[in-house]
Amino acid sequence: MEAYAIHKNALIKPRLARMTMDLIRGKDVETARGILENTNTKASRLILKVLNSAVANAVNNFGANESSLRISECYINPGPVYKRIKFASRGNVDRHDKRSSHITVCVSDAAKGVK
Question: What pTM was computed for the model?
Answer without folding.
Answer: 0.90
